[in-house]
Amino acid sequence: MNDKNAMALVHSTESFxxxxxxxxxxxxxxxxxxxxxxFCHNPDTWKMTDETGAIxxxxxxxxxxxxxxxxxxxxxxxxxxxxxEPLLQIDFLLEFFKKAKEKGIHTxxxxxxxxxxxxxxxxxxxxxxxxxxxxxxxxxKHIDTECxxxxxxxxxxxxxxxxxxxxxxxxxxxIRHVLVPKRSDKDEYLTRLADFIHSLNxxxxxxxxxxxxxxxxxxxxxxLDYPLEGINPPTKERVENAKKILTI
Length: 248
Hints:
alpha/beta; globular
């Protein structure tokens, strides 16, 4: 059996994902996240602990599980590792993606970039990981650093630095942005985000994800106060406005 560093604390899996990367995908949701997004619909993934019902699984175990569905992937599908925040478990990701690429599988990481740093040992591992990663879905929570702190509890400086690094190495990314009324849904912020995106050379797609309230019950189950109480999802007009501003 591998040591726990090369294993993953898994929250859940999805066999036929269709929105987390190209084609039909096997999605692994890892446990643990350093951000505390006010709109998070999975606060049960925050803590890096198996007390939540998460299970330790090895790379081989997960790969074998995924391969049962390979017939459905066709040419465009594959495996996406999401979260929580997958980069918190970078040792597992490295081993898992190496094995996936040996099988010719298309690999995607869905990340908000919270753990990224150019300090060692993380940065060398990240550079190595990128050799086995075909695409990243990168969530930009807010372009403004101070507003990002309010929205997530953390600065966005290292996250934007990760995205610039990915642009420098020309690693393909899809950018995702959750549109939250009274937080990120202001033309000023959307324009600044558009300027940042246009400074990059690796963005294949920008997706606007309208804020929704479907995860509120999980906050209540965990005994947490929901910070966006009373804020409704954005109107169709505001979603279209954001798509227009953020068109690449």
